[in-house]
Design a protein that fits this description.
The longest helix has 10 residues. The protein starts with 7 loop residues before the first helix and ends with a strand. It has about 150 residues and is mainly α. Helix 2 packs parallel to helix 4. The chain has a two-stranded antiparallel sheet. The protein is elongated, with a radius of gyration of 18 Å. The protein has two domains: about 70 residues, no CATH class; about 70 residues, no CATH class. Helix content is about 40%, strand content about 5%.
């Protein structure tokens, strides 16, 4: 078990095994790029234990959302407004659309990617796109039916 006195090597070993171990690490370890990257690669939700500075780091947040799309909720507002970060999150699971910025909740391509992985993601889209929900219907050719998101 690690604590605030643990060395970087000890913390790295712990977070590679369980990303949530970052919770027990010192403040300086929660602000260490290598430690936090290792933690989010093991469990994206460990982003919530990282420093504000690293919650605004593109590489860290992208790694986190690719592992767990719901880690988008812990990203900085700036990165919740980043097209690539949000697209990666909603392609993993569309429910992440709820944590995207209002600007990206109003982006057709982002919303389309979200509803393709979570059909009920339309509830998180902007009112403008919710009014256009018929544009998001998909034809399932194999089963010869229309899928309504």
């Amino acid at each position: 078990m690690i604590d605030e006195r643990s060395t970087k090597d000890e913390v790295l070993e712990a977070v590679k095994d369980n990303g949530y171990a970052l919770y027990y690490a010192s403040e300086s370890m929660c602000d260490d790029f290598d430690v936090v990257l290792a933690a989010v690669l093991e469990n994206g939700r460990s982003l919530r234990c990282s420093s504000e500075r690293l919650r605004d780091n593109y590489i860290i947040v992208l790694a986190a959302v690719k592992k767990r799309s719901d880690s988008l909720q812990y990203a900085s507002p700036r990165l919740r407004d980043n097209y690539d970060i949000v697209l990666a999150a909603v392609q993993h699971c569309g429910v992440a659309l709820q944590w995207a910025s209002p600007r990206l909740q109003d982006n057709y391509d982002i919303v389309l990617a979200a509803v393709q992985t979570f059909r009920y993601a339309m509830q998180y889209a902007s009112p403008r796109l919710q009014d256009r929900k018929n544009d998001f219907k998909k034809i399932d050719i194999k089963n010869k039916k229309l899928i309504d998101y």
